[in-house]
């Protein structure tokens, strides 16, 4: 099993860590790697779409899982798909959309693996109705640090199941999973676009009518100030039926032409002016109130159409910041966050607001009841980091938390307050991996795993 | 193309070829050493394409089993339309320099075993006057280099063998394709230092399928390796022996 020393980063391209990379092809390969004397610890790395240091392992080993991309079985009568953890959501859609099935939950990119979706307990536009991806997972097999393979479900090894869901890869290597696909009669969505003049209006619309839409999200202009603070475009919809789609095939795979960002944009391209202009244009581009039939690609994955869009943010990369606020405090929390953002002149190119459903039993799972706001912030200089620290404090003060799959800067103290069940997590971690064979840059930064 | 045998089906290139052929509804026999890995692949093709691929145990270096292996293939699908030989073994050159047994292993996998199984198949195809034979050789066989000359000489011998076989079978309508891939991103090359212009297995696999259909003789893939190797072959030996390629 060859290894290679390489600098790696997540999707935000910050931080960049040197690690020893290997790409196993068989379970026996993984066992050999975990046992190897030369490398003391490992973390799984799928398609590198988590933003920060979740899949990085400075001076340790990174185990690329993409060669575990086999489908294993599919039951037409129940929609239950069993596959290896390195299978990507894109491959699943390519195979199953034409057969009339869709993923139960998907994040905003289809370039994620099934293993990554479980380990980060990803959510999508339907969280307020369907919960996270893991809530549709019946069971998975997990290769432990000892080399033993165990099956985990809600009834079998349940504590390990809930530690692995959202457990950022620290309990073992997920090998295979079984989950339930959703039947669809078309691959289009009836989307209702509505402008909201500020975030208060958006919250009202969300709470008034979100139950009518299975998929719901709002793009938010974080540069707007005063009365227009948090103005946004709500995009909410439901899967269209076959007869609503014109043309002979209601179930096409919708690959959009791919644009590519061939090089790192110089840092001046995305500045306050250009981001402001984009945000204002994007807001006005959308009608006040309209219904439209939209294919799944542009509905779920607008950014997948641009290959390597993360290069837009230049060489220093960017951070994604996603926080959830509980219903009681969300008004003040969001208001304060948006005000700070617009007054500090930190521009966010893309910001997304969404209502979030009940939390699940995943010990380190992110979503919980309330509203979540996700921001992209380019790293222009080091002053961003104290700013993010103050954001963490703000989130904490309002009883919220930040999403580990996007984080690269949270402090261990804040992490512990945001994720109080980390203690239960550590107990299980120490049971299944007492020697910390599975570890990551993030795990050490947040002191989930002690050095 | 209806029934195709893939030898060494779990190799990086073979897996992609299998996927592409299965997508077209080709009935596949996936042969190799590890039934676990073959079944993993066959199961994947079944879910993706609803195609009944058959996994069969094939031990290349155990020549005595080749005859019965081929009979079993025919028994399972009837007539084979073609064979794609994808296995190979890089070995460890330093070890081969000290240990003749290891050098023999490299030669047996990459050359001797191919003669055995491909002759059995060629004799059958020649008799009935149809079929294609495709084998993956290597650009490493085009000129001996200090960095991999044992592997290279076995692949070079394989290329010569295929050339002769092509000549013999031309009149009976059986096509023989020699594939010479450059560096491909597979298990064999992952983490190897000093590689350049590394191709995706998807690119190489689709080139191979197209060349089989067009009944080509020799395929360099990606195409520019033909020109790279032409230049390398043209360097006079008096100069070449001093280079460290």
Structural commentary:
The complex is a heterodimer of chains A (451) and B (245). With 451 residues, chain A is an alpha+beta fold. Chain A has two domains: 71-184, Uridine Diphospho-n-acetylenolpyruvylglucosamine Reductase, domain 3, CATH 3.30.465.10; 188-411, Vanillyl-alcohol Oxidase, Chain A, domain 3, CATH 3.40.462. In chain A, 25% of the residues lie in helices and 25% in strands. Chain A has helices spanning 27-35, 89-96, 114-119, 127-130, 158-164, 199-209, 272-285, 296-300, 330-343, 384-397, 412-418, 422-432, 441-445, and strands spanning 3-9, 16-22, 42-45, 61-64, 71-75, 80-84, 101-102, 137-143, 149-153, 173-180, 182-183, 188-196, 215-220, 232-239, 259-260, 289-295, 306-307, 318-325, 351-356, 370-378, 401-402. The mean pLDDT of chain A is 93. Chain B has 245 residues and is an alpha/beta fold. Chain B has a single domain (3-240), classed as Rossmann fold (3-Layer(aba) Sandwich), CATH 3.40.50. Chain B has nine helices and seven strands; from the N terminus they run E-H-E-H-E-H-E-H-H-E-H-E-H-E-H-H. Chain B has helices spanning 12-23, 35-49, 66-77, 93-98, 100-128, 149-169, 201-213, 224-234, 237-240; strands spanning 3-7, 27-32, 54-57, 82-85, 132-136, 175-181, 218-221. In chain B, strands 3-2-1-4-5-6-7 form a seven-stranded parallel sheet, sandwiched between helices. In chain B, helix 5 runs parallel beside helix 6 (149-169). The longest helix of chain B is centred in the middle third of the chain and has 29 residues, at 100-128. The N and C termini of chain B lie far apart (40 Å). Classes of the chains: A alpha+beta (451), B alpha/beta (245). The A-B interface holds A 2-4, 21-23, 25-26, 67, 69-74, 81, 83, 95 and B 36-37, 40-41, 43-44, 47-48, 187, 190-192.
